[in-house]
Write a structure and sequence with these properties.
It contains one helix and three strands, in the order ββαβ. By secondary structure, it is mainly beta. It has a domain at 33-70. Strands 2-1-3 form a three-stranded antiparallel beta sheet, with no helix packed on it. The longest helix is centred in the last third of the chain and has 5 residues, at 59-63. The protein is elongated and about 55 Å long. The N and C termini lie far apart (59 Å). 7% of the residues are buried.
Length: 75
């Protein structure tokens, strides 16, 4: 049976900030890159040596979706 109520808006846990900047591993795909990753949740770190065309996130990030991971690239 269809409900007569109409839902407007979004749940409180939805990220409403809009599009964000691409992660460092997603940019400059035509060159080799050194990307540093830090998991704010479990304090694990990793240095990613990415080859040309590689736009993969850190394996820890993909296997632990609830963890907050920061990526950066030294200039």
């Amino acid at each position: 049976m269809a409900s007569s109520e109409r839902v407007v808006g979004a749940a409180e846990n939805v990220d409403k900030r809009g599009p964000s900047e691409p992660e460092p591993y997603e940019t400059d795909l035509d060159e080799r890159r050194v990307i540093y990753a830090y998991c704010c949740t479990c304090e694990e770190t990793e240095t990613l040596l990415l080859e040309v065309g590689d736009d993969s996130p850190w394996a820890h990030d993909t296997s632990n979706a609830s963890h907050e991971v920061e990526y950066w690239r030294e200039a």
